[in-house]
Predict the 3D structure of the following.
Amino acid sequence: SYVLTQPPSVSVAPGQTARITCGGTNIGSESVDWYQQKSGQAPVLVAYDDGDRPAGISARFSGSNSGNTATLTISRVEAGDEADYYCQVWDSSSDPYVVFGGGTKLTVL
Amino acid sequence: EVQLVESGGGLVQPGTSLRLSCAASGFTFDDYAMHWVRQAPEKGLEWVSGISWNSGRIDHADSVKGRFTISRDNAKKSLHLQMNSLRPEDTALYYCAKAYSSKSGRFDHWGQGTLVTVSS
């Protein structure tokens, strides 16, 4: 089955830019979604179709996807961005239907 | 406002069964696919099962195939997960998730989860 690889942790100072990667074979041909999960809370969709954002999500969150790596970029990081972030790919013609990456813990220093 | 409220979790012994439910409100339930996603303690997200808007397509992860069955009742706006032959490794917080469209695997709303603990 398809495997998505994320770094376990990323650390960044407030005001800086955080980049969280998601690796997968030819992931650039897939549509990648990103979820934010703060401690003790349910996940929230923060980016989809590589880089679009749901209503209400800050423009500081953006996505890109090419080759074997998708990236979630968080600009001007704030303390409130500290959370676990998961990439996800889904394909109705695949089995399994949905695959998550292992998650990345973003720490704001 | 979209609301998803899970119920049915609890502490059960290995080999037994449990039925989870998810009550949906705030949207046209039968327009959207629905899914179950679980998260073991201190672990990442794992997709469990998905069902299309009209139950015409049903999918399960390999880890639960043959043991879990997803279903929905559009008249009652409810989603269910029948879990049989439970194992300790099924211990997790089970989330109900609304899909982005009628057949999507993208989740735009999540419930708060119901905890399932499988232990002797």
Chain A has a mean pLDDT of 94. The longest strand of chain A covers residues 83-90.
